[in-house]
Write a structure and sequence with these properties.
heterodimer; A: 430 residues; mainly alpha; ABC transporter involved in vitamin B12 uptake, BtuC; two-stranded antiparallel ribbon; 4 strands; 2% strand; globular; disordered N terminus; B: 263 residues; alpha/beta; six-stranded mixed β-sheet; four-stranded antiparallel β-sheet; 9 helices; 12 strands
Chain lengths: 430, 263
């Protein structure tokens, strides 16, 4: 008995006490109870979350840091402004596709067609502008709509006819790949106008130093104002709110990060247009998922389809729309990829693209089991994957090794996902 | 005896329901008044769930009539029942494990402010609602998965209260709950009665029925097998009505001696 007590680490007592206290006081947020204790409270809360398997983005951030440190020690060119800037531009194509995958994974489903659909979008743009001389903007919109329609078709067959999403999108993978080869025709490769709209997507940089810093300032100020006024409203309504000190601390952390990134870009060619668009998309999709009724429906479907149906959610419509979103982002990603190589060719959308996009969403922390994840996961995940690609390329290591390493990272991530789920179940948080 | 209004909130008159060759309900009568808890009991396959589903609009009735506050109504789909003010809490609670308490309470009827979820208002109202029902949960911002079975049940019941229903139907709310949690749920049922809601409680547990119900309606093989005042009836009498173990003299006598209840 006494041995048991002494061998128990002290923080266990703290944790138990906080939880007991939280239960004793009716309807008071336990997290806020600890937060009021200041910095020590954060630490207790952090330990409690770790024990409960609530890891969030921590594994992937640690993993990314390790990957960067390893490659930097192998080659001192890895963490240069030029290389980091190139990584961030190269990741946007796959990252966009991964954003769509996050939506589908939140439902607990999978979309295997995104690679092929992205290829179709690139090919459609190339054929429409180069072969048919259509205006770039119109072709751009039509190419993206191709993805939307393809995704909506998959969603319709899945939601209305009841074919498993896996099978529908596997069929889509084959069909759209064939469709792309068909519209590309015999020539196989169509080069894009180097100064055209799509080519500019990844080749344009805001070279003015003020652009990157200005964006950093804007993001920081926007974050602070929205948290500050959000908390003011919470206080006024008498519901738990964050102390001002915490808002300031979070804003400061964001500011440091934003200005560091801006400084890196400004050392090289400036702020890349591709990154601005990607960040914008992430902000919008994150807002939609977490702040709108539509996003809430997606999470609800990932949690329990039956509960969603009884709550009056139109399950089929949400499913179709999510697959349409996935197709749309696949198309957008395809245009970015076509932009990077300034051409549409027969290999587009094939190879490891599909696997990388799914891996990015999962590595970033989106659960394969549905109902858990954020679109920011796509950014973190794709950063890991492209960092590995670039790091190995710097070392002159060929793609077989690269595939094996990416595979290993993906396996590690899904193992973490499965294990944390187990831990969360035992801690009653799954 | 609890003071109840003259016109029942809900009255079933000779309701029958057939599924193919199976006659699930035959000439069933049921009355529920405001501020009254009616326990619906019966053996497996007695038609309890079917009866509840006819009221909730899942299965439209074949024959008979449903009266709502004295006037005849058609309930042909779940939406009709909701519009009348009938809320049903099914046995599988239909909550989303990954969403927090506030999100679950307002699932499908989120409060919006300029098109965006108004989390602050939803949280404030959730706390108010849980406070008025004296529901104790550690936080309204933790996922449902973190709650115990009893807490989930109370959240599911609280969720049904959001539309200010006149009638609440609880399908086996204490099944699979521990002693303490059962007590919490029964407390909540009593508070629903105090607030003037009519409650239909399906239960297999006689102790629960005796503890909170005002009346017990027994179904046997799809037919009424007696309606009892809980206070003046012994558990054995109810059980024999459920099982049909006696020749039902007790049942008939109980029904006869009780003037306001018709058989």
């Amino acid at each position: 008995m006494s041995i048991d007590k002494t061998s128990t680490p002290p923080e266990d007592h703290v944790v138990e006490n906080t939880e007991a206290a939280a239960q004793a006081v009716t309807a008071v947020d336990p997290r806020l109870l600890v937060r009021e204790q200041g910095f020590a409270g954060y630490l207790t809360e952090f330990k409690r979350k770790m024990k409960a398997g609530d890891l969030g983005a921590i594994p992937v951030v640690i993993g990314l840091a390790i990957i960067w440190i390893i490659f930097q020690s192998l080659n001192s060119n890895f963490l240069t402004a030029g290389n980091l800037s190139d990584i961030s531009v190269a990741m946007v194509g796959t990252g966009m596709i991964a954003v769509g995958i996050v939506f589908v994974l939140l439902l607990g489903e999978i979309d295997l067609s995104v690679g092929s659909v992205s290829g179709v979008a690139g090919a459609a743009y190339a054929v429409l502008t180069v072969t048919h001389g259509m205006s770039a903007w119109l072709a751009f919109v039509l190419a993206i709509l191709t993805g939307t329609v393809a995704g909506a078709l998959h969603g319709f067959v899945f939601a209305k006819i009841g074919v498993p999403a896996f099978a529908v999108t596997l069929a889509g993978l084959l069909f759209w790949n064939g469709f792309m080869l068909q519209i590309l025709g015999d020539s196989g490769t169509i080069n894009l106008d180097g100064e055209g709209l799509v080519a500019k997507l990844t080749s344009y940089y805001f070279s003015d130093v003020a652009a990157a810093y200005g964006l950093a300032v804007a993001v920081t100020v926007l974050y602070f104002l929205s948290s500050y006024f959000g908390n003011r409203r919470r206080e006024a309504a008498g519901v738990p709110s964050r102390p001002l000190s915490e808002t300031v601390l979070r804003t400061a952390l964001l500011a440091v990060l934003a200005f560091a990134v801006a400084a890196v870009y400004n050392q090289y060619k400036g702020l890349p247009l591709a990154v601005v668009i990607f960040i914008g998309i992430l902000l919008v999709t994150d807002f939609v998922l977490r702040r709108t009724a539509y996003g809430r429906k997606i999470f609800a479907l990932g949690g329990s389809v039956e509960a969603s149906r009884r709550a009056g959610i139109n399950v089929a419509m949400v499913r179709i729309s999510v697959f349409a979103i996935s197709g749309t982002f696949a198309a957008i990603g395809g245009l970015f990829i076509a932009s990077k190589i300034a051409s549409a060719n027969q290999g587009a959308g094939g190879g490891d693209l599909l696997m990388n996009a799914i891996a990015a969403a999962v590595i970033g922390g989106t659960s394969l089991f549905g109902g858990r994840g954020r679109t920011w996961n796509a950014l973190l995940g794709v950063l890991v994957i492209v960092s590995i690609q670039y790091g190995l390329a710097l070392e002159g290591i060929a793609s077989p090794v690269q595939y094996m390493i990416t595979g290993g990272v993906l396996l590690a991530t899904v193992v973490i996902d499965a294990v944390t789920r187990k831990t969360q179940k035992t801690a009653g948080r799954a | 005896m609890v003071h109840v209004s003259a016109t029942p909130v809900l009255a079933l008159r000779g309701v029958s329901k057939r599924f193919g060759a199976v006659q699930a309900l035959t000439d069933v009568e049921l009355e529920v008044h405001a501020g009254e808890v009616v326990a619906l009991v019966g053996d497996n396959g007695a038609g309890k769930s079917t009866l509840v589903k006819t009221i909730a609009g899942v299965h439209p009735i074949d024959e008979g009539a449903i009266e709502w506050e004295g006037s005849k109504v058609q309930i042909s789909k779940p939406h009709d029942a909701q519009d009348l003010g009938i809320a049903t809490v099914y046995q599988d609670l239909a909550l989303c494990d990954n969403i927090d308490v506030v999100g679950n309470l307002y699932l499908g009827r989120e409060i919006r402010r300029r098109g965006v979820l108004d989390e602050v208002e939803m949280e404030r109202r959730s706390r108010e609602l849980l406070d008025t029902l004296s529901i104790r949960i550690p936080s309204v911002r933790i996922p449902i998965a973190s709650l115990s079975g009893g807490q989930r049940q109370t959240v599911a019941i609280a969720r049904s209260m959001l539309g200010e229903p006149k009638l609440v139907i609880l399908d086996e709310p204490t099944a699979a709950l521990g002693v303490e949690q059962t007590a919490q749920v029964l407390d909540l049922v009593e508070r629903l009665r105090e607030r003037g809601h009519a409650v239909i409680l399906i239960s297999h547990n006689m102790a629960d029925v005796k503890a909170v119900a005002d009346k017990v309606a027994v179904l046997r093989l799809g037919r009424n097998n007696g309606v009892f005042e809980v206070k003046s009836t012994s558990q054995e009498e109810i059980i024999s009505a459920i099982t049909g173990a006696t020749d039902n003299a007790v049942t008939r006598r109980a029904a006869r001696t009780n003037g306001e209840i018709k058989k």
